[in-house]
Amino acid sequence: MIEKTGTVIMIVSEGIRIWREEQALLVRNGYSVVEAQYGVDALLKVRDGCPDLIVLDLDLAAGRWLDVCREIRSETSAPVLMLSAQSAERDKVIALDSGVDDYIVKPFGVQELLARVRAALRRANSTGKPEMPFTFESGDLKIDFDRRTVVVRAKKVRLTPKEWEVLQLLVTNQGKPIRHQMMLQSIWGPAYGRETQYLRVFIRQLRRKLESNPSRPELICTEPWLGYRFETPTA
Fold first, then answer.
1. Which residues pair with 141 in a beta bridge?
2. Do 78 and 33 fall into the same domain?
3. Distance CA 169, CA 49 (A)
4. Nearest to 156, CA basis, from 171, 141, 169, 167
5. How much is the pTM?
6. Segment 217-230, tens digit of pLDDT
7. 38, 70, 126, 155: which has the highest count of C-beta atoms within 10 A?
8. For the chain, how many structural domains are there in total?
9. Which of 190, 210, 188, 209 lies closest to 199, judged by CA?
10. Same domain, yes or no, for 102 and 52?
11. Strands 135-138, 53-57: pairing kind
């Protein structure tokens, strides 16, 4: 059992790799750090201790990291950051698709890491809600923002925390186009603005879950070269 003493960050790495420098940095900044080896060890510690944030320091070219990431996401709604030397957009998209909330390319500065950690925790711990109805209902879509439930065509749909944030922003501004930069900065923080692949991943996931035909979306519409717009569904 992880003893909760302040904000707990779990670092998941491979084998006996230990990130001493990063651990010391996080501890100096007031965080409690727990280390875990990727695989069963990480899953057990997630179940036992419910860390506030998880950092994955894994080699994308080796092992079953993708399955582990998905399993971790199925166990917790805590934000997940991935550190990787792979900078290709394809690798970022695969990681985001598997449940990662943010992707940091190595090498990175210590201040960047701290800023990403703070931003992820701030979003996760925010108690302020955007101005919106507690429920939204139109056609076959029913959303309860207070209970965080979505029903589509009489079936309950499960959303990840980031999918919720994207959907909330879209529905709050229904009928209005939202620029890519505004969406990124509202959901991930002011340091973001060019990571449009993040939006493509979560928009695609939401369309798969909400649209009757994801390849021809009627709810979450693309505004070419601008952003996205939520349209009220018809009955």
1. 138, 152
2. yes
3. 31
4. 141
5. 0.73
6. 999 999 998 999 99
7. 38
8. 2
9. 188
10. yes
11. unpaired
**Residue 196 contacts by C-beta under 8 Å, 6 or more apart in sequence?**
180, 184
Look at residues 125, 159, 176 and tell me which one is the last residue of a structural domain: 125
Taking CA atoms, 139 is separated from 142, 151, 155, 212, 229, in Å, by 8, 11, 13, 12, 17
Beta pairing partners, 223: 227
48 and 153 in a single domain? The answer is no
Q: How far apart are CA 192 and CA 123, in angstroms?
A: 14
pLDDT of 17-63, one tens digit each? 556 777 788 888 989 888 887 777 788 888 887 789 999 887 666 55
Long-range CB contacts for residues 218-227, cutoff 8 Å, separation at least 24: 219/141, 220/170, 223/177, 226/177, 226/179, 226/180, 227/177, 227/178, 227/179, 227/180, 227/182, 227/183, 227/199
Residue 192 structure tokens: 């973001």
Segments forming the whole domain that contains residue 220: 135-230
CA 12/CA 192 separation, integer angstroms: 25
Domain boundary among 106, 125, 144: 125
Give the C-alpha distances (Å, rounded to integers) separating 219 from 159, 208, 229.
Answer: 16, 11, 8
Cβ-based burial of 156 (10 A; exposed 0-12, middle 13-18, buried ≥19):
exposed
Could you tell me what percent of the chain has a pLDDT over 70?
Answer: 89
Q: Domain check: are 51 and 99 in the same one?
A: yes
